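Exercise 7b. C-alpha cells:
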C-alpha cells in the first residue's frame, strides 16, 4: 500500500523512510517529532525526554542520564568520566582498581590507605591476579618474601621458627632462643 504525500504538506525523511509530518511521532507520547532531536530504537523513534523516561540509566555519581556507553560497578550505572578513584579522583574506566566499602580506589590509593604491608619488603600485599601471601600472627608476607632471615631459603609450606620479629628455617633456627 502506498500513501501519497500531498503537495503542500511537509514530509519527513529518516533512515530512508518518509512520513507525513504529523505521522512522524514519538512512540511513547505520540507527539510529532518534527525537527526535534530523537533517539531511534528497534521499537521505534522517541523524543529525547520520552527515551530518557523509558530507557535511560542515570549515573550513580552525577545523577544525569547516560546516553551511551557507561560502565557498571556494584550493579550501578556510571558515566565513564564519573567513575573516579574515591581517593585521588583519577578516572578508573581504563584502570585496574580495588574497592573498599563499595567505593572504588586506584591501586595506588588502595595500597596506601588499606593494603597490608609485607613484613619483609614492606610493599603492599594486594592479592591481585591470584597473588599468594602468608599470614602469621599479626604479620603477612608475599610468598616470594617468606624466606629464612639467615640463609634465605623459602619457608612456604615448611616449618619455621621465630625469634623476635625474624623468621628462620628449622636448621638456622635450631639453637636460637625462639618464640615457637
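Sequence design result:
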Amino acid at each position: 500500500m502506498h500513501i501519497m504525500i500531498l503537495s503542500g504538506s511537509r514530509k519527513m525523511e529518516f533512515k530512508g523512510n518518509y512520513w507525513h509530518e504529523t505521522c512522524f511521532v514519538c512512540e511513547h507520547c505520540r507527539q510529532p517529532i518534527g525537527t526535534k532531536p530523537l533517539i531511534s530504537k528497534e521499537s521505534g523513534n522517541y523524543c529525547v525526554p520520552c527515551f530518557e523516561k523509558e530507557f535511560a540509566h542515570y549515573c550513580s555519581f552525577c545523577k544525569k542520564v547516560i546516553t551511551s556507553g557507561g560502565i557498571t560497578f556494584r550493579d550501578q550505572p556510571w558515566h565513564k568520566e564519573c567513575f573516579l578513584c574515591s581517593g585521588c579522583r583519577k578516572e578508573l574506566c581504563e584502570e585496574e582498581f580495588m574497592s573498599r566499602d563499595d567505593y572504588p580506589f586506584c591501586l595506588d590509593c588502595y595500597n596506601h590507605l588499606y593494603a597490608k604491608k609485607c613484613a619483609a619488603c614492606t610493599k603492599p600485599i594486594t592479592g591481585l591476579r591470584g597473588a599468594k601471601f602468608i599470614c602469621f600472627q599479626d604479620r603477612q608476607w608475599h610468598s616470594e618474601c617468606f624466606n629464612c632471615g639467615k640463609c634465605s631459603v623459602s619457608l612456604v609450606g615448611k616449618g619455621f621458627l621465630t625469634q623476635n620479629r625474624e623468621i628462620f628455617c628449622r636448621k638456622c633456627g635450631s639453637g636460637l632462643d625462639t618464640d615457637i
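Instructor comment: The domain at 11-54 is CATH 2.10.110.10 (Cysteine Rich Protein). Confidence is low (pLDDT under 50) at residues 1-6.
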